[in-house]
Amino acid sequence: MGKIVAANWKMNLRRQSGCELASALKTDGRECWLFPSFTLLAPIADTLIGGTLKLGAQDLSPELDGAFTGDVSAEMLGDAGCTMVLVGHSERRHGHGEQGELLLRKLKRAAEAGLKPLYCVGETLEEREAGRAKEVVKEHLSVLKDLQGTCAAVAYEPVWAIGTGLTATPEQAAEMHAFIRDELTKLGLTDLPILYGGSVKPGNAKDLMTQPHVDGVLVGGASLKLDSLRAIDDVAREIG
Prior knowledge:
Layout: E1 4-8, H1 15-27, E2 33-35, H2 41-48, E3 54-57, H3 74-79, E4 84-87, H4 90-96, H5 100-112, E5 116-121, H6 125-129, H7 133-141, E6 153-156, H8 170-186, E7 194-197, H9 202-209, E8 216-219, H10 226-239
Parallel strand pairs: 1-2, 1-8, 2-3, 3-4, 4-5, 5-6, 6-7, 7-8
Helix pairs in contact: 1-2, 7-8, 9-10
């Protein structure tokens, strides 16, 4: 497998701008993973027909169906054209208080509906400065122990490097990715790709993706512009 480029558009873009970006990536023959907002999923799914891009949602409900106003079920996501979903992104963990048991329920619901989660883990600046980074990441990974074959990948995203302009050094990324690889191996997940996420840009993508155990990148702000996402994906293709 070559290097993976996943694009998390977060709460950005509209129908026209999102579909134009998706269409341009499809025309290029890109194989990125796209995670638009809920309202863009169906039109972008139509745009991607016949291409090689994969479509995912940014979140899902842990429930099947019912009286859960504002939630979106895994089956609804599949119906909209998704094959993937983000689970445990730091902005859900720290902005919405999502942790352990809830995230495990979301992972199981995704699997039951045939969706492949991209599961996110990572420490805050306070946790890193307290020497607890690996402890925190190990705890995040522990929910995967009974979920063989469920996930598409794990993404390591140091919370202090998301949307801040800060980026883990290549050495910091390599150290944590090696730790995650060891932990996944202990859980029997030897082939699960590990992506790096946290202020990834065209200028640092190569340094990050050439580190051991960095199997690709999860891109936020730089994925909203065609030129920058193309540049990052070109690096991924070059490295192979």
